[in-house]
Amino acid sequence: MAELRNGALVFHAHLGAGTVISTRKMDISGTNQRYYVVELVSGNKLLLPVNQIGQICSLRTSKAIGEVLSAAPEDLAANYHQRRGDIEKKIKSGDQLQYAEVFRDLAWRGHNTRLSNTDKEFMNSMKKRLIDILSIQTDLGIQEAAQWLELTLQKIILSWSTGEQHESSPGRNAEVGQPESRDKSK
Fold first, then answer.
1. Which of 157, 97, 106, 159 lies closest to 130 in space, CA to CA?
2. Distance in angstroms (rounded) separating the CA atoms of residues 104 and 132
3. Are the beta carbons of 46 and 16 closer than 8 angstroms?
4. Cα 95 from Cα 167, distance rounded (Å)
5. What's the CA dihedral at 165, 120, 83, 81 to 10 degrees?
6. How do strand 31-40 and strand 56-58 relate by DSSP bridges?
């Protein structure tokens, strides 16, 4: 990833989405370094050494996430240990589209069978990450992004159940009535 500019929307796999608000030189433990100051959706600030830029990545577009959510779900392994390993591999990738896949596939599994407590934890964790991403890329607040995600998920599950195709991304779904995305890449 090249040098980040103020206003860049970024994603940290463990901390969520945020906006680069500045760079700052700081002397910590006798070492003078440049840091990116990232304001996270949670309101916390992340000081990330410029030489550790690999810990963050650009945000995927809300359209790309909507396309993953709308795609047909993949069946997860029936064996708990296999399923958990497969999900953990996707989560450890740090890829936001794989987070959307995990969320989508667990939602479908939960529609058809009871989720284990671990499955529920994975699903809630991915939901939080997706809400962060959607809220920072659109004019939606956290609660509105959560509501949009829930409504969209309900519609998508209904369409899977009836065999219909469904396409959705925040700002494009007139039925949900969401504001336009700040995403310029749509």
1. 97
2. 16
3. no
4. 21
5. -170
6. unpaired
Task: Go through the domains of the chain in sequence order and give each one's CATH number.
Answer: 9-58 (2.40.10.170), 62-162 (1.20.58.1290)
Scan for tokens 């409504």, then name that residue: 151
In angstroms, rounded to a whole number, what is the distance separating the alpha carbons of residues 133 and 142? Answer: 10
Amino acid at 32: N
Print pLDDT tens along the chain (186 aa). Answer: 578 899 999 998 888 899 999 999 988 888 889 999 999 998 999 999 998 888 888 888 888 998 999 899 999 999 999 999 999 999 999 899 999 999 999 999 999 999 999 999 999 999 999 999 988 888 788 899 999 999 988 888 888 888 765 455 444 333 333 334 554 443
Closest CA to 129 of 102, 89, 156, 153: 102
Q: 102: which 2 tokens?
A: 């995990």
CB-count burial class (<10 Å; 0-12, 13-18, 19+) for 71: middle
Q: What is the DSSP string of 15-83?
A: TEEEEEEEEEEEEETTEEEEEEEEEETTS-EEEEEGGGGGGEEEPPPHHHHHHHHHSPPPPPPSSHHHH
pTM score, whole prediction: 0.79
Give the CA count within 13 Å in the CB-facing half-sphere of 13: 14
